[in-house]
Amino acid sequence: MEAGAARDRLELELQVGRGSACAVAHGHPAVETERAWVRAIALLRNDPEDPRNFWARRGLSSVYGARANMTAYAAIAEETLELAQTSADPAGLCVAHMMFANLHQYTGRFADLERSAAEAARHYRADEHHASFQLSGLDIGVHIPMARMFARSWGGDHAGAEQCLEKALRLAEAQPQIGTLCWALYWASFSSLIGRDFEPAGRLADRAVALATEHGVGIWATAALLSRGATLVIVDPDRVVTLIGLGLVKLETLGSRYYFHPTYLCFQAEALLHLGRVAEARGAIDRALAMTASTGVTWWDAELHRIRAVVIRAEGGNDDEVREALTRAVAIAVQQGSETFRRRAVADMDAT
User: Fold this and answer.
1) Which of the residues 37, 52, 216, 273 could staple to 59 if both were Cys, CB 3.0 to 4.6 A apart?
2) Longest CA span, the chain
């Protein structure tokens, strides 16, 4: 076909479909996924009224998120919000606020996460936005209650988080995209890890592993195995060390090198402490904290400092050194609005 508007329209359809398909087949951080969304956005430059401008940017933002590239993520979120405010398109406003909800979660601003998720919900139109998976690689109708679930998990409202989780899973199970259900099951298990509620976390992770493995959704099979490993930190620490070590290497081959790592390195460090492998635990915690400092993905920082206090104690540190690390954990939790992590660090401080 000759170059021109007709060819561009056809290619745009193909690139949008390819971006969504690659997000499932190769994972959100994959180069193939990025190329499709970048090309789709380029093809849309001359058609600013096309709502796919918002959805394609959402697809590309998922690439940056899964790579823990907060600079690029923040830039595309700002660009999307500016476009949405100019057009006053409900789809654009829903997408933009949902992107900011993600950004606030990654960077540990949990009250802002709640507000942005509420704004996204205000602009969501179920009858108009039902094709969001095909347009962006993620179902936004499922994503909104998932974001609200996280806001409540971090904030210590576990009953509220459970209600949001049930809604998100109900919506995910009612739609036809297996990738969406795998994604939802994984993040539901992750939410349970925030509260160290290991039984449901393990159950949800097992479902995600089985479904993602059956359908070849590699990134969620691998991520869910990491969550499954984390749930065993008390009862089988040796297996935790192995599962998390292998899982993190696998994620790196999928293009995700820093996004999931700090959380699971924290559980690996805890397992190593149970095994008496103190120097390795120190290495895992230091590696995780270096990653969060370099990327800005700081949602697990309070817990990392809490476990760092345990490492310091195991290294022979005195009470003042341990309390200093726990004080840091409490301060981060308070600043971020994580009542769940604050309570846990305070409990450890009271026991010191």
Assistant:
1) 37
2) 74
Separation of CA 154 from chain center:
13
Opening angle at CA 258, ends 250 and 326, nearest 5: 120
Q: What is the dihedral of CA 268, 273, 275, 281, to 10 degrees?
A: 60
pLDDT tens-digit series, residues 188-209: 999 999 999 999 999 999 999 9
35 burial (CB, 10 Å; 0-12 / 13-18 / 19+) is middle
**Distance separating alpha carbons of residues 28 and 65, to the nearest angstrom:** 8
DSSP class of residue 126 equals T
Among all chains, which residue has been given the structure tokens 């940056």?
64
At CA 319, angle to CA 313 and CA 322, rounded to 5?
Answer: 55
Q: Using CA atoms, how far apart are residues 37 and 17, in angstroms rounded to an integer?
A: 10
Q: Is the dihedral of CA 274, 275, 279, 282 positive or negative?
A: negative
Cα–Cα distance measured from residue 137 to residue 133, given in angstroms and rounded to the nearest whole number: 5
CB 214 within 8 A of CB 186: no
188 by DSSP, 3-state: which? helix
Contacts of 227 (CB under 8 A, 6+ apart): 186, 189, 190, 193, 201, 202, 204, 205, 208
pLDDT in tens, 285-327: 999 999 999 999 999 999 999 999 999 999 999 999 999 999 9
Q: Residues 6 or more apart from 350 whose CB is under 8 A from it?
A: none
Using CA atoms of 243, 194, 105, 187 in order, give the dihedral in degrees to the nearest 10: 60
**Cβ burial 214-241 (10 Å sphere, 16+ → b, else e):** ebebbbbbbbbbbbbbbbbbeeebeebb
The rounded distance, in Å, linking the Cα atoms of 66 and 62 is 6
CA distance 350 to 352: 6
Does the pTM surpass 0.85? The reply is yes
| All domains in the chain, ordered by first residue | 1-138 (1.25.40)
